Amino acid sequence: MKKVLIVDDTKNIRLLLTTCLELYGFKVFSTNNGKAAIELFKNENLDLAFLDIKLPEMSGTEVLRVIRNLNINTPVIIMTAFATVKNAVECTKLGAVAYLQKPFTAEKVKNVLSEIYISLDDNILDKQKKAEDLIICNKLNDAYDLLKSILSLDPCCSKTYELIGKVHELKGEEDKAKVFFETSKQLEK
Hints:
Rossmann fold
């Protein structure tokens, strides 16, 4: 499971990001200050970090500078409500991989993740294709497990619910199949 750190002094930002990132299968760590963030960078093998520029006591730029000096090369997404050219240039020089302008939505978070390295949509399509192949080979339990993992990446994908319905149908579980087929139809609207 990939590990991500959220560093922001605003509780609602941390909650929004935590919810989004957990849906995409991340183990989330969060803190509201730079000093605690540095300790987490030192003690956890993080795959990604969301770092606010404006933090109490120590700025996000300072945190980024410290971790780079410690040879910690975790990809960092800078979050800011007050973007300036100076900050952008400085953070880019320190290896920031993207910027997220506040306020932002869950969709913007997904877009930034996709742009960076995760390719969530491609990953889902690949997994759906593999699940279809498993269904064809009558490996229904394996297909079901894979489809459940897809739901953790995107709980609103109608195709995934359709395929789970197909698994239940092939197992003779008509009532369960019907529920998933109906959910699939609802999500298509």
